[in-house]
Amino acid sequence: MERKIIHTADGSKTIQLTGWNEQYHSLHGAVQEAYxxxxxxxxxxxxxxxxxxxxxxFGTGLNALITLVEAPSLxxxxxxxxxxxxxxxxxxxxxxxxxSAFDTSRAALWYEALHLCTWEEPVTITSxxxxxxRNTDARRFVTAHPVYDLIYFDAFGxxxxxxxxxxEIFISMFSALRPGGILVTYSAKGSVxxxxxxxxxxxxxxxxxxxxREMLRASKPLNPGTLP
Length: 228
Prior knowledge:
- The chain is an alpha/beta fold and 228 residues long.
- The chain has 6 helices and 11 strands.
């Protein structure tokens, strides 16, 4: 499938998959969307603790980089796991250049480290951030115990990959979250919300990033009971 790098409205870049008419990030602003959905609605709900994060769709590495940059201000030590079956190539992530979007000069070095680190094992990027990249996707992801506090659900949209937005997928996500944990996603489709609620999530619609009216945040109850 043809891929090309394009500019978004906030000046940052993203990758467009022309055959699907789909982008890795919002055309209204790649960095802006990532902050709104995953940091403001997700990461900033936690502070002063160790935090275990699962990202569904490592993609360009933007969500991981922003998390790495923002976690110290919240006094968070982050264990970050990411699922990805089709890593972007080096020429692409270098052209995207997300490290230059941040005030700290270290962001470019961190961005490179996120992409160059080995797969399938924990890699310490900074003293407060460890990354484990796994070459799998949500359809094959299983965990024996609830180990995550926060899930960034950033798969391609249900229009092009409907099998990543099903009850079966959200059962897996629900099982992976600790009680009280949350999942955030840019999607606000009614079918997605119903799939989440069917497996036990409590959902809320939040104002979406520029270009989207709403987004979803789902919480696992403190006493979740038995899965459907």
